[in-house]
Amino acid sequence: MIRFNATDTTNADVGFLKQVLSAVVAAGAGEVSISDLTGTAIPGAMAYIGREAVSVAGVPVRIHCHNDFGLALANTLAAVEAGATIVDGTINGLGERTGNVSLDELIAALEFLYGIDTGVDIKRLTELSRMLEEMTGVAVPKGKPIVGRYAFAHTLDAHAMGVVAHPELYELIDPSLEGNEGVVVLGKGSGPKGVRFRLRRLGIEATDEQVARLVEAVNKTASATRSAVTDDELRRLVKEKSGL
Prior knowledge:
By secondary structure, the protein is an alpha/beta fold.
């Protein structure tokens, strides 16, 4: 099958683009691709270009977006809404300059927000992301949506209390569906609910008074180190502050 790729689609005259797409399909192309080569389109523009391309193509339309302004996912979804049926993406969003749409985010959006069955084993998305991180040496930000280690993390005590009682309050997607997990991060602003939750995960029971001392110690440690308190640090604080 022949696929025609209009490389710099978003900088082309739309009338000319439609003429070209009509011509290449008439000449035998079985698929056409529209591309935001420099990542400068906005979702409304991409939806318009997508609709125009779909209206004349008569064959499957593919969308390929770059992420220079952080709009690759939004633009890809706009094109899908406009009728594009094939989408490009890369693992962890790796690509030229700032990269392309991240496959894990795209797949999750299509599955959970649009109800589209992608045929992908979504439970392995986190595993795939971290495997590529190890292979390439390019770190995945901890706060990256879907697959980041802190994608389903909670710090504020109200959030910790809520997510323990009713996870759906703050986790609209069950982290395990993506192969990830929810965590309560201890840091500046943590309170007794979060501290007690982490203690119990470590198999440690404490009185309210001991927890109160640990809350103070956790906040001081996080402020001094400017980072989250690890399990090892929490164990150290438990020995120093509560004698457990």
